[in-house]
Specification:
The chain contains four helices and 16 strands. It is of the alpha+beta class and 273 residues long. The chain starts with a strand and ends with a helix.
Amino acid sequence: MGAIPYSEGAGQGTTFRVWAPNANQVAVAGDFNGWDASASPLAPEGNGNWSADVPGARDGHQYKYVINGTLWRIDPRARQVTNSVGNAIVVDPGFAWRVENFQAPPWDEVVVYQMHLATFPDAPVDGSDLFADVLSDENIRYLKELGVNTLLLLPTGEFPGDHSWGYNPAHIFAVESYYGGPHALKRFVDRAHEHGLAVWLDVVYNHFGPNDLSIWQFDGWFEHWNGGEMGGIYFYNDWRAHTPWGEKNRPDYGRGEVRSFICDNALMWLEEY
């Protein structure tokens, strides 16, 4: 699912696949087709999924799905976005890891430093690659002197704006753009491992948002409950949608596709990072 770039011989392209069970038509528009909403239609697979192979779409290209000709949506599984209300970006998940055989400390020796990337530095820094700034030589010495051997990062999924604790995720597959994006997080993990530091990630699956959610009413379908519009295919559409973080933003764990969406996200962090 999502955008999967490939190279075959001299050719490059990307396979796009998205779940939109109530859509009548789905297309993908982006840098690769002049943002033409009809140039690259996706074909229905018969199970609520739509897919297309788009030659020429490659790593770094921005894109959006166009549902029923009018609903422009960020890919729910985008690995990177320009910002929480911007465009998705095709990402090649490959990375040249320098440390390949890192061993985390035994459980009974773990010393955890819970870290919020934006507030860890002594002074504000440019967020273009905050991951790199946090693990400067000076900061690594500081952490080692404290006796820390494990860094627990507050949620790094894309959230609205540039400043947040991260517990209001807008795009759970995308690494926060202000922090530096997916490759910056991989460099962070690699450098941490190089210096004997394990990395844990805090994740949020008991609610999404509530703001800047492209998955809200993603394919146009939703129910009404208690006089209001509900969230559509990714959410409960009745009283079960209520959470302490919003009235309508609990994922519908009763749908197999939503459970897969969450489980695949957890696996992504383990497999790609």
